[in-house]
Design a protein that fits this description.
By secondary structure, this protein is of the alpha+beta class. The chain is built from 7 helices and 17 strands.
Protein backbone atom coordinates (compact mmCIF):
# COMPACT_ATOMS: atom_id res chain seq x y z
CA UNK A 1 0.00 0.00 0.00
CA UNK A 2 1.10 3.63 -0.63
CA UNK A 3 1.85 5.68 2.49
CA UNK A 4 -0.13 8.93 2.31
CA UNK A 5 1.16 10.42 5.64
CA UNK A 6 3.85 13.05 6.10
CA UNK A 7 6.95 11.96 8.09
CA UNK A 8 7.00 15.30 9.89
CA UNK A 9 3.41 15.88 10.99
CA UNK A 10 2.22 12.24 10.70
CA UNK A 11 -0.94 13.55 9.03
CA UNK A 12 -2.38 13.22 5.52
CA UNK A 13 -0.20 15.02 2.95
CA UNK A 14 -0.96 18.66 2.21
CA UNK A 15 0.76 19.80 -1.01
CA UNK A 16 3.29 16.90 -1.04
CA UNK A 17 6.79 17.82 -2.35
CA UNK A 18 10.03 15.88 -2.95
CA UNK A 19 13.53 16.59 -1.53
CA UNK A 20 16.94 15.66 -2.86
CA UNK A 21 19.04 12.84 -1.51
CA UNK A 22 16.76 10.13 -0.20
CA UNK A 23 13.93 11.82 -2.12
CA UNK A 24 11.37 11.75 0.69
CA UNK A 25 7.96 13.32 0.25
CA UNK A 26 6.81 15.83 2.88
CA UNK A 27 4.07 18.45 3.24
CA UNK A 28 5.13 21.81 1.87
CA UNK A 29 3.92 23.66 5.06
CA UNK A 30 5.90 21.21 7.21
CA UNK A 31 9.20 21.64 5.31
CA UNK A 32 8.80 25.43 5.17
CA UNK A 33 8.27 25.58 8.95
CA UNK A 34 11.26 23.23 9.42
CA UNK A 35 13.57 25.54 7.44
CA UNK A 36 12.76 28.72 9.41
CA UNK A 37 15.74 29.95 11.43
CA UNK A 38 18.19 27.58 9.67
CA UNK A 39 20.84 28.98 7.32
CA UNK A 40 21.59 25.64 5.66
CA UNK A 41 18.78 23.21 6.45
CA UNK A 42 19.29 19.46 6.01
CA UNK A 43 16.83 16.71 5.17
CA UNK A 44 14.95 15.62 8.32
CA UNK A 45 15.64 12.00 7.38
CA UNK A 46 19.10 11.77 5.73
CA UNK A 47 20.55 15.17 6.88
CA UNK A 48 21.60 16.09 3.30
CA UNK A 49 21.50 19.82 2.70
CA UNK A 50 18.89 21.39 0.40
CA UNK A 51 17.29 24.69 -0.49
CA UNK A 52 13.61 25.57 -0.74
CA UNK A 53 13.98 26.30 -4.45
CA UNK A 54 14.88 22.61 -4.98
CA UNK A 55 11.44 21.39 -3.83
CA UNK A 56 9.43 19.57 -6.54
CA UNK A 57 5.65 18.85 -6.33
CA UNK A 58 4.75 15.13 -5.98
CA UNK A 59 1.71 15.04 -8.28
CA UNK A 60 1.17 11.28 -7.92
CA UNK A 61 0.71 11.56 -4.15
CA UNK A 62 -1.48 14.63 -4.60
CA UNK A 63 -3.73 12.67 -7.01
CA UNK A 64 -4.08 9.80 -4.54
CA UNK A 65 -4.88 12.15 -1.67
CA UNK A 66 -7.57 13.77 -3.81
CA UNK A 67 -9.38 10.41 -3.97
CA UNK A 68 -9.94 10.45 -0.20
CA UNK A 69 -13.55 11.43 0.69
CA UNK A 70 -13.97 15.08 1.68
CA UNK A 71 -15.38 14.31 5.16
CA UNK A 72 -12.34 12.19 6.02
CA UNK A 73 -9.95 15.00 5.05
CA UNK A 74 -11.94 17.57 7.02
CA UNK A 75 -11.81 15.32 10.11
CA UNK A 76 -8.05 15.00 9.75
CA UNK A 77 -7.65 18.76 9.47
CA UNK A 78 -9.61 19.22 12.69
CA UNK A 79 -7.42 16.61 14.35
CA UNK A 80 -4.30 18.44 13.13
CA UNK A 81 -5.47 21.71 14.80
CA UNK A 82 -6.06 20.04 18.20
CA UNK A 83 -3.20 19.97 20.76
CA UNK A 84 -1.03 16.95 20.25
CA UNK A 85 -0.35 14.71 23.25
CA UNK A 86 3.22 14.16 24.39
CA UNK A 87 5.10 11.25 25.84
CA UNK A 88 3.88 7.61 25.62
CA UNK A 89 0.29 8.70 24.90
CA UNK A 90 1.46 10.61 21.88
CA UNK A 91 3.33 7.58 20.53
CA UNK A 92 0.30 5.39 21.05
CA UNK A 93 -2.01 7.87 19.33
CA UNK A 94 0.38 8.21 16.40
CA UNK A 95 0.64 4.44 16.01
CA UNK A 96 -3.14 3.90 16.01
CA UNK A 97 -3.64 6.86 13.70
CA UNK A 98 -1.05 5.41 11.32
CA UNK A 99 -2.82 2.05 11.23
CA UNK A 100 -6.17 3.69 10.54
CA UNK A 101 -4.63 5.72 7.75
CA UNK A 102 -3.06 2.64 6.21
CA UNK A 103 -6.38 0.80 6.35
CA UNK A 104 -8.12 3.73 4.68
CA UNK A 105 -5.43 3.91 2.03
CA UNK A 106 -5.78 0.21 1.22
CA UNK A 107 -9.56 0.53 1.02
CA UNK A 108 -9.27 3.52 -1.31
CA UNK A 109 -6.71 1.65 -3.43
CA UNK A 110 -9.00 -1.40 -3.76
CA UNK A 111 -11.96 0.78 -4.72
CA UNK A 112 -9.86 2.56 -7.34
CA UNK A 113 -8.75 -0.75 -8.85
CA UNK A 114 -12.33 -2.06 -8.91
CA UNK A 115 -13.51 1.11 -10.62
CA UNK A 116 -10.73 0.81 -13.20
CA UNK A 117 -11.46 -2.88 -13.93
CA UNK A 118 -15.21 -2.23 -14.17
CA UNK A 119 -14.64 0.61 -16.63
CA UNK A 120 -12.39 -1.62 -18.78
CA UNK A 121 -14.98 -4.44 -18.74
CA UNK A 122 -17.76 -2.06 -19.81
CA UNK A 123 -15.56 -0.77 -22.63
CA UNK A 124 -14.81 -4.31 -23.89
CA UNK A 125 -18.49 -5.32 -23.75
CA UNK A 126 -19.45 -2.26 -25.76
CA UNK A 127 -16.85 -3.11 -28.37
CA UNK A 128 -18.14 -6.72 -28.59
CA UNK A 129 -21.71 -5.46 -28.94
CA UNK A 130 -20.67 -3.12 -31.74
CA UNK A 131 -18.82 -5.91 -33.56
CA UNK A 132 -21.82 -8.28 -33.22
CA UNK A 133 -24.15 -5.67 -34.69
CA UNK A 134 -21.76 -5.00 -37.58
CA UNK A 135 -21.37 -8.73 -38.30
CA UNK A 136 -25.13 -9.37 -38.26
CA UNK A 137 -25.63 -6.38 -40.55
CA UNK A 138 -23.02 -7.72 -43.00
CA UNK A 139 -24.62 -11.17 -43.05
CA UNK A 140 -28.10 -9.76 -43.66
CA UNK A 141 -26.75 -7.50 -46.39
CA UNK A 142 -24.98 -10.42 -48.11
CA UNK A 143 -28.07 -12.67 -47.96
CA UNK A 144 -30.26 -9.87 -49.32
CA UNK A 145 -27.75 -9.30 -52.12
CA UNK A 146 -27.63 -13.02 -52.99
CA UNK A 147 -31.40 -13.37 -53.14
CA UNK A 148 -31.73 -10.15 -55.16
CA UNK A 149 -29.28 -11.57 -57.71
CA UNK A 150 -31.23 -14.85 -57.89
CA UNK A 151 -34.56 -13.04 -58.26
CA UNK A 152 -33.15 -10.80 -60.99
CA UNK A 153 -31.76 -13.82 -62.81
CA UNK A 154 -35.05 -15.73 -62.57
CA UNK A 155 -37.07 -12.70 -63.69
CA UNK A 156 -34.70 -12.13 -66.62
CA UNK A 157 -34.96 -15.77 -67.67
CA UNK A 158 -38.74 -15.55 -67.34
CA UNK A 159 -38.89 -12.50 -69.63
CA UNK A 160 -36.59 -14.10 -72.21
CA UNK A 161 -38.53 -17.38 -72.13
CA UNK A 162 -41.91 -15.68 -72.53
CA UNK A 163 -40.50 -13.52 -75.33
CA UNK A 164 -39.15 -16.60 -77.08
CA UNK A 165 -42.47 -18.43 -76.75
CA UNK A 166 -44.34 -15.38 -78.11
CA UNK A 167 -41.96 -15.10 -81.06
CA UNK A 168 -42.28 -18.79 -81.84
CA UNK A 169 -46.06 -18.60 -81.55
CA UNK A 170 -46.18 -15.65 -83.97
CA UNK A 171 -43.86 -17.46 -86.39
CA UNK A 172 -46.01 -20.58 -86.20
CA UNK A 173 -49.20 -18.53 -86.67
CA UNK A 174 -47.72 -16.79 -89.70
CA UNK A 175 -46.64 -20.12 -91.15
CA UNK A 176 -50.09 -21.61 -90.60
CA UNK A 177 -51.75 -18.59 -92.24
CA UNK A 178 -49.41 -18.90 -95.22
CA UNK A 179 -50.20 -22.60 -95.44
CA UNK A 180 -53.95 -21.89 -95.33
CA UNK A 181 -53.51 -19.35 -98.14
CA UNK A 182 -51.51 -21.84 -100.19
CA UNK A 183 -54.13 -24.52 -99.60
CA UNK A 184 -56.86 -22.14 -100.73
CA UNK A 185 -54.96 -21.45 -103.94
CA UNK A 186 -54.44 -25.18 -104.41
CA UNK A 187 -58.16 -25.82 -103.90
CA UNK A 188 -59.01 -23.32 -106.64
CA UNK A 189 -56.46 -24.90 -108.96
CA UNK A 190 -57.78 -28.37 -108.20
CA UNK A 191 -61.32 -27.31 -108.94
CA UNK A 192 -60.23 -25.88 -112.32
CA UNK A 193 -58.21 -28.97 -113.14
CA UNK A 194 -61.04 -31.23 -112.09
CA UNK A 195 -63.41 -29.43 -114.45
CA UNK A 196 -60.98 -29.85 -117.37
CA UNK A 197 -59.79 -33.35 -116.65
CA UNK A 198 -62.91 -35.09 -115.42
CA UNK A 199 -62.71 -37.53 -118.34
CA UNK A 200 -58.95 -38.26 -118.13
CA UNK A 201 -57.56 -41.52 -116.67
CA UNK A 202 -56.82 -41.61 -112.92
CA UNK A 203 -53.05 -41.58 -113.42
CA UNK A 204 -53.17 -38.24 -115.25
CA UNK A 205 -54.94 -36.33 -112.48
CA UNK A 206 -53.17 -33.48 -110.65
CA UNK A 207 -51.39 -34.21 -107.42
CA UNK A 208 -50.98 -31.51 -104.80
CA UNK A 209 -47.58 -30.12 -103.82
CA UNK A 210 -45.86 -31.94 -101.00
CA UNK A 211 -44.59 -28.61 -99.67
CA UNK A 212 -47.95 -28.01 -97.99
CA UNK A 213 -47.51 -31.08 -95.82
CA UNK A 214 -44.66 -29.66 -93.73
CA UNK A 215 -45.12 -30.25 -89.99
CA UNK A 216 -45.34 -27.36 -87.56
CA UNK A 217 -42.67 -27.85 -84.89
CA UNK A 218 -43.85 -25.30 -82.30
CA UNK A 219 -44.66 -28.03 -79.79
CA UNK A 220 -41.18 -29.47 -80.13
CA UNK A 221 -39.57 -26.07 -79.52
CA UNK A 222 -41.77 -25.44 -76.49
CA UNK A 223 -40.79 -28.81 -75.07
CA UNK A 224 -37.14 -27.79 -75.34
CA UNK A 225 -37.93 -24.56 -73.46
CA UNK A 226 -39.82 -26.51 -70.79
CA UNK A 227 -36.83 -28.80 -70.34
CA UNK A 228 -34.50 -25.79 -69.90
CA UNK A 229 -36.83 -24.32 -67.27
CA UNK A 230 -36.83 -27.60 -65.33
CA UNK A 231 -33.03 -27.65 -65.47
CA UNK A 232 -32.92 -24.08 -64.13
CA UNK A 233 -35.23 -25.06 -61.24
CA UNK A 234 -32.93 -27.95 -60.35
CA UNK A 235 -29.82 -25.71 -60.38
CA UNK A 236 -31.52 -23.12 -58.16
CA UNK A 237 -32.52 -25.87 -55.72
CA UNK A 238 -28.89 -27.03 -55.53
CA UNK A 239 -27.67 -23.44 -55.01
CA UNK A 240 -30.11 -22.82 -52.16
CA UNK A 241 -29.19 -26.11 -50.46
CA UNK A 242 -25.48 -25.32 -50.73
CA UNK A 243 -25.59 -21.81 -49.23
CA UNK A 244 -28.69 -21.67 -47.04
CA UNK A 245 -29.58 -25.25 -46.07
CA UNK A 246 -29.83 -24.53 -42.33
CA UNK A 247 -31.69 -21.21 -42.70
CA UNK A 248 -34.74 -22.72 -44.43
CA UNK A 249 -37.60 -24.39 -42.55
CA UNK A 250 -37.69 -28.21 -42.76
CA UNK A 251 -40.78 -28.28 -44.98
CA UNK A 252 -39.73 -29.31 -48.49
CA UNK A 253 -41.61 -29.18 -51.78
CA UNK A 254 -43.10 -32.39 -53.16
CA UNK A 255 -41.04 -34.62 -55.36
CA UNK A 256 -40.65 -32.81 -58.67
CA UNK A 257 -40.35 -36.04 -60.60
CA UNK A 258 -43.87 -37.05 -59.65
CA UNK A 259 -45.20 -33.83 -61.21
CA UNK A 260 -43.08 -33.27 -64.29
CA UNK A 261 -43.04 -36.87 -65.54
CA UNK A 262 -41.86 -36.97 -69.18
CA UNK A 263 -43.19 -33.56 -70.16
CA UNK A 264 -39.80 -31.96 -69.41
CA UNK A 265 -38.14 -34.01 -72.17
CA UNK A 266 -38.35 -33.24 -75.89
CA UNK A 267 -40.52 -35.70 -77.87
CA UNK A 268 -37.46 -37.38 -79.36
CA UNK A 269 -35.85 -37.91 -75.92
CA UNK A 270 -39.12 -39.04 -74.39
CA UNK A 271 -39.52 -41.65 -77.10
CA UNK A 272 -35.99 -42.98 -76.54
CA UNK A 273 -35.97 -42.65 -72.72
CA UNK A 274 -39.51 -43.06 -71.41
CA UNK A 275 -40.03 -42.12 -67.74
CA UNK A 276 -40.16 -45.31 -65.67
CA UNK A 277 -43.61 -46.19 -64.37
CA UNK A 278 -44.46 -47.60 -60.93
CA UNK A 279 -43.95 -51.34 -60.73
CA UNK A 280 -47.01 -53.46 -60.08
CA UNK A 281 -45.32 -56.83 -59.63
CA UNK A 282 -43.59 -55.89 -56.34
CA UNK A 283 -45.80 -53.05 -55.07
CA UNK A 284 -47.32 -55.27 -52.35
CA UNK A 285 -43.88 -55.34 -50.68
CA UNK A 286 -43.10 -51.66 -51.22
CA UNK A 287 -41.40 -49.86 -48.28
CA UNK A 288 -41.11 -46.13 -47.62
CA UNK A 289 -37.35 -45.60 -47.22
CA UNK A 290 -35.60 -42.26 -46.63
CA UNK A 291 -32.00 -41.09 -46.47
CA UNK A 292 -30.28 -41.01 -43.05
CA UNK A 293 -28.77 -37.57 -42.28
CA UNK A 294 -26.28 -39.17 -39.87
CA UNK A 295 -24.89 -41.52 -42.53
CA UNK A 296 -24.45 -39.21 -45.52
CA UNK A 297 -21.21 -37.70 -46.81
CA UNK A 298 -20.84 -33.96 -46.11
CA UNK A 299 -20.59 -33.12 -49.85
CA UNK A 300 -24.01 -34.71 -50.51
CA UNK A 301 -27.12 -32.57 -49.90
CA UNK A 302 -30.41 -34.24 -48.92
CA UNK A 303 -33.83 -32.67 -49.72
CA UNK A 304 -37.47 -33.46 -50.58
CA UNK A 305 -38.42 -35.09 -47.25
CA UNK A 306 -35.06 -36.93 -47.20
CA UNK A 307 -35.91 -38.72 -50.48
CA UNK A 308 -33.47 -36.91 -52.81
CA UNK A 309 -29.68 -36.73 -52.55
CA UNK A 310 -27.53 -34.57 -54.81
CA UNK A 311 -23.89 -33.56 -55.19
CA UNK A 312 -23.07 -30.26 -53.46
CA UNK A 313 -20.22 -27.90 -54.39
CA UNK A 314 -19.54 -27.17 -50.71
CA UNK A 315 -19.70 -29.20 -47.46
CA UNK A 316 -23.21 -29.31 -45.96
CA UNK A 317 -23.64 -28.23 -42.33
CA UNK A 318 -24.75 -31.56 -40.87
CA UNK A 319 -24.65 -32.37 -37.16
CA UNK A 320 -21.49 -34.30 -36.10
CA UNK A 321 -21.92 -38.08 -36.34
CA UNK A 322 -19.42 -40.93 -35.76
CA UNK A 323 -21.08 -42.95 -38.58
CA UNK A 324 -20.80 -40.28 -41.30
CA UNK A 325 -19.25 -41.56 -44.55
CA UNK A 326 -15.89 -40.15 -45.64
CA UNK A 327 -16.70 -40.91 -49.31
CA UNK A 328 -19.70 -39.90 -51.44
CA UNK A 329 -22.12 -42.52 -50.07
CA UNK A 330 -25.39 -42.45 -48.11
CA UNK A 331 -27.54 -45.08 -46.37
CA UNK A 332 -31.22 -45.09 -45.46
CA UNK A 333 -32.59 -44.94 -41.92
CA UNK A 334 -34.67 -48.12 -42.37
CA UNK A 335 -33.23 -51.64 -42.00
CA UNK A 336 -34.66 -55.10 -42.77
CA UNK A 337 -33.93 -58.47 -41.16
CA UNK A 338 -36.99 -60.57 -42.17
CA UNK A 339 -39.63 -60.72 -44.91
CA UNK A 340 -39.74 -59.24 -48.42
CA UNK A 341 -39.04 -55.59 -49.15
CA UNK A 342 -39.00 -53.43 -52.28
CA UNK A 343 -38.04 -49.85 -53.20
CA UNK A 344 -37.27 -47.91 -56.38
CA UNK A 345 -34.66 -45.25 -57.14
CA UNK A 346 -34.65 -42.71 -60.00
CA UNK A 347 -31.14 -42.79 -61.52
CA UNK A 348 -31.59 -40.82 -64.74
CA UNK A 349 -30.10 -37.59 -63.28
CA UNK A 350 -26.68 -39.07 -62.47
CA UNK A 351 -23.87 -40.16 -64.80
CA UNK A 352 -22.32 -42.37 -62.15
CA UNK A 353 -24.05 -44.21 -59.29
CA UNK A 354 -24.43 -47.41 -57.33
CA UNK A 355 -27.66 -48.78 -55.78
CA UNK A 356 -27.54 -51.63 -53.30
CA UNK A 357 -27.80 -52.93 -49.73
CA UNK A 358 -25.24 -53.06 -46.92
CA UNK A 359 -24.73 -54.25 -43.38
CA UNK A 360 -24.75 -51.42 -40.83
CA UNK A 361 -21.13 -52.29 -39.93
CA UNK A 362 -19.87 -51.05 -43.31
CA UNK A 363 -16.89 -48.77 -42.73
CA UNK A 364 -16.95 -45.03 -43.29
CA UNK A 365 -14.40 -45.46 -46.10
CA UNK A 366 -15.71 -48.80 -47.50
CA UNK A 367 -17.14 -48.49 -51.00
CA UNK A 368 -20.43 -50.22 -51.73
CA UNK A 369 -20.00 -53.69 -53.27
CA UNK A 370 -16.32 -53.92 -52.31
CA UNK A 371 -16.91 -55.61 -48.94
CA UNK A 372 -18.21 -59.01 -47.84
CA UNK A 373 -21.51 -57.62 -46.54
CA UNK A 374 -22.55 -55.20 -49.31
CA UNK A 375 -24.10 -55.82 -52.75
CA UNK A 376 -24.94 -53.38 -55.56
CA UNK A 377 -25.39 -52.65 -59.25
CA UNK A 378 -23.31 -49.77 -60.55
CA UNK A 379 -23.31 -47.49 -63.59
CA UNK A 380 -19.97 -45.78 -64.14
CA UNK A 381 -20.17 -42.72 -66.38
CA UNK A 382 -16.78 -42.69 -68.18
CA UNK A 383 -16.93 -46.42 -68.95
CA UNK A 384 -20.63 -46.30 -69.87
CA UNK A 385 -21.21 -49.80 -68.53
CA UNK A 386 -23.48 -51.49 -66.00
CA UNK A 387 -21.91 -53.88 -63.48
CA UNK A 388 -22.81 -55.89 -60.40
CA UNK A 389 -20.40 -55.77 -57.45
CA UNK A 390 -19.82 -57.92 -54.33
CA UNK A 391 -16.63 -58.52 -52.31
CA UNK A 392 -14.71 -56.41 -54.83
CA UNK A 393 -15.63 -58.70 -57.74
CA UNK A 394 -17.24 -57.12 -60.82
CA UNK A 395 -19.80 -58.83 -63.07
CA UNK A 396 -20.49 -56.99 -66.34
CA UNK A 397 -24.23 -56.95 -67.10
CA UNK A 398 -24.11 -55.70 -70.74
CA UNK A 399 -27.29 -53.65 -70.31
CA UNK A 400 -28.17 -50.05 -71.14
CA UNK A 401 -28.28 -47.47 -68.40
CA UNK A 402 -31.57 -47.87 -66.46
CA UNK A 403 -33.52 -44.66 -65.72
CA UNK A 404 -35.01 -46.23 -62.61
CA UNK A 405 -33.79 -49.19 -60.55
CA UNK A 406 -35.99 -51.44 -58.40
CA UNK A 407 -34.50 -53.41 -55.49
CA UNK A 408 -36.29 -56.54 -54.25
CA UNK A 409 -34.96 -58.04 -51.01
CA UNK A 410 -36.14 -61.60 -50.14
CA UNK A 411 -34.65 -62.42 -46.77
CA UNK A 412 -36.31 -65.87 -46.52
CA UNK A 413 -34.62 -66.93 -49.76
CA UNK A 414 -31.52 -64.88 -48.86
CA UNK A 415 -31.48 -63.06 -52.21
CA UNK A 416 -31.44 -59.47 -53.43
CA UNK A 417 -32.50 -58.71 -57.02
CA UNK A 418 -32.09 -55.55 -59.07
CA UNK A 419 -34.50 -54.55 -61.87
CA UNK A 420 -34.54 -51.90 -64.58
CA UNK A 421 -38.00 -50.32 -64.38
CA UNK A 422 -39.80 -48.95 -67.45
CA UNK A 423 -43.35 -50.04 -68.26
CA UNK A 424 -42.27 -53.46 -67.01
CA UNK A 425 -39.56 -54.97 -64.81
CA UNK A 426 -36.37 -56.26 -66.45
CA UNK A 427 -34.11 -58.31 -64.19
CA UNK A 428 -30.54 -56.99 -64.12
CA UNK A 429 -28.90 -59.27 -61.54
CA UNK A 430 -29.61 -61.42 -58.47
CA UNK A 431 -27.22 -61.98 -55.56
CA UNK A 432 -27.32 -64.65 -52.90
CA UNK A 433 -26.75 -62.93 -49.57
CA UNK A 434 -24.95 -64.68 -46.72
CA UNK A 435 -25.58 -62.49 -43.70
CA UNK A 436 -28.05 -62.63 -40.80
CA UNK A 437 -27.55 -59.00 -39.79
CA UNK A 438 -30.09 -56.30 -40.75
CA UNK A 439 -29.55 -54.76 -44.18
CA UNK A 440 -29.94 -51.11 -45.13
CA UNK A 441 -30.57 -49.53 -48.57
CA UNK A 442 -27.27 -47.91 -49.58
CA UNK A 443 -26.17 -45.63 -52.45
CA UNK A 444 -23.05 -44.12 -54.01
CA UNK A 445 -22.67 -41.09 -56.31
CA UNK A 446 -19.74 -40.82 -58.72
CA UNK A 447 -17.66 -37.61 -59.15
CA UNK A 448 -18.24 -34.69 -56.81
CA UNK A 449 -17.37 -32.33 -59.68
CA UNK A 450 -20.64 -33.08 -61.52
CA UNK A 451 -24.09 -32.19 -60.21
CA UNK A 452 -25.77 -35.61 -60.09
CA UNK A 453 -28.69 -36.79 -57.96
CA UNK A 454 -30.67 -39.89 -56.93
CA UNK A 455 -34.33 -39.82 -55.87
CA UNK A 456 -36.31 -42.48 -54.01
CA UNK A 457 -39.69 -42.96 -55.73
CA UNK A 458 -43.09 -42.87 -54.03
CA UNK A 459 -44.77 -46.26 -54.47
CA UNK A 460 -48.42 -46.93 -53.65
CA UNK A 461 -48.35 -50.19 -51.72
CA UNK A 462 -51.14 -52.68 -52.49
Amino acid sequence: AVDLTCACCLQRFTEPVRLRGCSPSLCRPCIVAYCKGRQRPGCPLCREGFELKDLRPNRELAALVSLIPQEVREGELETRDEPKPSGPDACSDRSSAGRRLEEKEEEIWDISKQLEMTAETICLLRKDLTKAKEYASQIKSQITKDFCCMKEYVERQERHTLMFIEQEQKAAQQKIEETIHQLSVEVNKLMDIKARTSNLPETHRYKGSSSTMNKITLEEKLNVVRSAVEDLKRKLEILLLEKYAQQFPPVQPPDLYQETNVCSLPPESAAKNPEPMISSQFSQWADDVTFDLTRVYERLAVSAQNRKVMVSSYPTDYEPSPNRFCISQVMCSQSFSTGCHYWEVITKDSDGWAVGVANEMIGKRDKLGRTEHSWCVEWLGPKKQLSAWHRGQETLLHKDKPLKVGVFLELQKKTVSFYAITDKEMLLHTFEINTSNPLYPAFWLYSLEINGSLTISHINRR
